[in-house]
Design a protein that fits this description.
349 residues, alpha/beta, TIM Barrel, eight-stranded parallel beta sheet, four-stranded antiparallel beta sheet, 40% helix, globular
Length: 349
């Protein structure tokens, strides 16, 4: 049987894998080795100042909360760009000058510091969180969405300049990373609907993502797209870019229909979301009708049974764990244990 890395790459190539891969964004959900490791340059992630505040490359302040497990989001009370600022966006959004960087050395240090074992984990190269995410980080959702309608030319000009910068970094680093996979990302949807139409996605964001995707296509590198929520209307655009895998494919999308249409040419990575029942406390003497471990395990088997036949699927799901959240830590232990063990035997049943 092949190892996790090769099995995951087989899945992305549209081949029949030996078992159901578990996809993560790196060594996040317990012990590895994980079949993939998303990796980007630390200099692209901004910095933490002496005041302990994290700011992006462009000065956006990020705050984290215990309820989100420490994940950072742009502070919602001090956006750095308004609609009125857009004609002069370049005076506010300062794109870094990285012309003097020793890219070979920087990439070598990044790989070394990551601790990745490339015999066991594929390297997935990443450069940014996405252009819709950049827009709303700069302006907030309300102003950013209005700007797409009221100032489309300035928005396009800004995004084009930003994507030129990311393309420059990517072309200077891709051959040093020698990635197995190139990772794209942009969260453009909520649970019930996308924030933008497919037509608007294609007009404003596709050209910028495609600069990066073109680098992958030129080299024949596998590519994956991360986009949460009900983003199924954008899948034809993902396909135009040459995307092989989509995470985190949430159950608010018609995943069975998508699998029927694309088969193994678009790997569905996800498919499991916690139902209200799965969010309940465990059964106990004081709570005899509470959740059972078997219900968690069965929920995993149900998703794999539905989406994994024939390949074209990887597990990519978890409970969101807040700080000191022992209940969901235990639920995740059960969830990932079942995904690993049931996934290992699925294609041999």
């Amino acid at each position: 049987m092949v190892n996790g890395k090769e099995n995951y790459l087989m899945t992305l190539r549209g081949e029949q894998p030996d078992f159901v891969s578990r996809y993560s964004f790196g060594p996040m959900l317990g012990e590895g080795p994980w079949p993939n490791y998303n990796m980007g340059l630390p200099i692209m992630q901004g910095s933490i100042g002496e005041d302990g505040i994290r700011r992006s490359l462009y000065g956006v302040r990020y705050v984290s909360t215990d309820s989100a497990g420490g994940a950072g989001l742009p502070a919602n009370d001090e956006f750095i760009l308004s609609i009125d600022d857009l004609p002069n966006w370049g005076d506010i959004i300062k794109i870094p000058d990285f012309t003097d960087i020793d890219w070979a050395d920087l990439v070598a240090q990044t790989i070394k510091n990551s601790g990745i074992n490339r015999d066991e984990s594929s390297l997935s190269m990443s450069t940014n969180a996405g252009y819709f995410q950049l827009l709303v980080a700069f302006m907030g959702f309300e102003q950013g969405l209005i700007a797409l309608y009221e100032e489309p030319d300035y928005v396009k000009e800004m995004l084009d300049a930003l994507s030129d910068f990311y393309e420059y970094v990517s072309r200077n680093t891709v051959d040093h990373f020698d990635p197995d996979i190139m990772h794209l990302s942009d969260d453009t949807a909520a649970w019930h609907n996308p924030f933008i139409s497919a037509a608007m996605y294609r007009e404003f964001f596709y050209p910028n993502h495609d600069k990066y995707a073109k680098i992958g296509r030129e080299r024949g590198v596998l590519m994956e797209m991360h986009n949460c929520g009900k983003c199924e209307s954008a899948i034809p655009i993902f396909r135009d870019m040459g995307i092989h895998g989509w995470s985190a494919a949430q159950s608010c999308n018609d995943l069975t229909g998508i699998k029927a249409e694309y088969g193994n040419s678009l790997v569905i990575m996800g498919g499991w979301d916690p139902t209200p029942r799965l969010l309940e406390d465990f059964a106990s003497p004081d709570n005899p009708n509470g959740l059972t471990e078997e219900e968690i395990r069965q929920s995993v088997r149900d998703v794999i049974d539905e989406l994994a036949p024939g390949g074209g699927y990887a597990w990519c799901s978890a409970f969101l764990v807040a700080k000191d959240d022992k209940l969901n830590e235990e639920k995740n232990r059960i969830l990932q244990d079942e995904a690993e063990n049931y996934g290992l035997i699925f294609y041999r049943q």
